[in-house]
Design brief:
- The chain is α/β, with parallel strands linked by helices and 309 residues long.
- Helix content is 46%, strand content 14%.
- It contains 12 helices and 8 strands.
- α3 runs parallel beside α5 and α6 runs parallel beside α7.
- The longest helix is centred in the N-terminal third of the chain and has 28 residues.
- The protein is globular and about 75 Å long.
């Protein structure tokens, strides 16, 4: 879907909700002087109930038309009947009371949509627009994932900022991301600007400590700490440097010094997920099992969720 199509859909959404609100107000005004029968709702209330019922039935019909792995049509509940910004609930935020599974989507937009449709609609699942996806599709990856996802889905833009932090954060925020990433090897000035920009635009800030030996050294240099610190063993490190291990021991060190969340990336096997949770990680990132859609996608997601708790 291109930006012009997105704009068209937004116009249609606004028109639909404008008509709905107009009909409700018109109905209430028309019936405001009619008496209310004892024990029965007023005619205006009944009209409102009937209208909402018809809308709910229409949405249910359209939702049934969306097949798993298919792209929602313009009239689907996740697009046409999506709540406009003025009526939308506040964006989702992470909570230290929960443990999360972060599903990194790195293949194509088609694969990303198909996988999202198969995932359980859980508030403990974080959707990540992975770096390869962002490099290929730009911010359209965020918009497409948001359109395909369930209401209130939390989306991370894995942009790995190393410079021009304010501009990059502003762009992904406008596209609908709930969080963004910055590399811990970036200049301290960039990380500080990144964290400040995330707070300004209402995003959670995540600092990726890939290729950083000691995350605490980086954190101590910052004006303010990020919302999430990611301890990350890269894909190439995993494949070509077997002695490179995920620094699980740093989780407690970081959480003992700062009131922040810690994410673990680079361990896709169940035993590594278990070890991360055992060491008090808040978020576990998985990508390998979710690179391509398979008949086991939903089952795998539920298995990971079971371990991440």
């Amino acid at each position: 879907m291109n930006p012009s199509a997105d704009s068209f859909i937004e116009v249609i959404r606004s028109l639909v909700w404008f008509v709905v609100i107009f009909l409700i107000i018109y109905s209430l005004k028309k019936n405001k002087n009619k008496a209310t029968s004892k024990g029965k709702p007023s005619s205006s209330s009944q009209t409102l109930i009937d209208l909402i019922t018809r809308l709910s039935q229409e949405v249910a019909k359209k939702k049934a038309m969306v097949l798993p792995g298919s792209r929602p049509s313009v009239g689907s509940p996740r697009s046409l009947f999506a709540t406009p910004a003025l009526l939308a609930p506040p964006p989702p935020k992470l909570s230290q009371k929960n443990k999360y599974l972060q599903v990194a989507l790195n293949s194509t937009l088609h694969e990303a949509r198909s996988i999202i449709y198969q995932l359980p609609q859980s508030h403990r699942i974080i959707l990540e627009a992975g770096t390869p996806l962002m490099k290929i599709y730009g911010n359209e990856a965020i918009r497409a994932m948001k359109s395909a996802a369930w209401p209130g889905a939390y989306i991370v833009a894995d942009i790995k900022t190393t410079d021009l932090a304010v501009r990059e954060v502003a762009e992904v925020a406008q596209a609908g991301a709930n969080a963004a990433t910055c590399l811990g090897v970036a200049p301290v000035e960039t990380i500080n600007e990144f964290i400040a920009a995330c707070r300004k635009y209402g995003l959670d800030s995540m600092v990726d400590m890939m290729n950083v030996d000691n995350a605490l050294i980086v954190l101590k240099k910052l004006k303010k700490v990020p919302d999430v610190v990611m301890l990350h063993r890269g894909v190439d490190e995993t494949e070509f440097s077997k002695e490179r291990q995920i620094p699980f021991y740093q989780i407690k060190q970081i959480k003992g010094a700062y009131d922040i969340m810690v994410s673990i990336a680079g361990g896709d096997q169940i035993r590594e997920v278990q070890r991360a949770v055992f060491n008090d990680a808040d978020i576990v990132v998985a990508w390998k099992d979710f690179y391509r859609l398979s008949s086991d996608t939903a089952t795998l997601a539920n298995q990971f969720l079971h371990e991440v708790k």
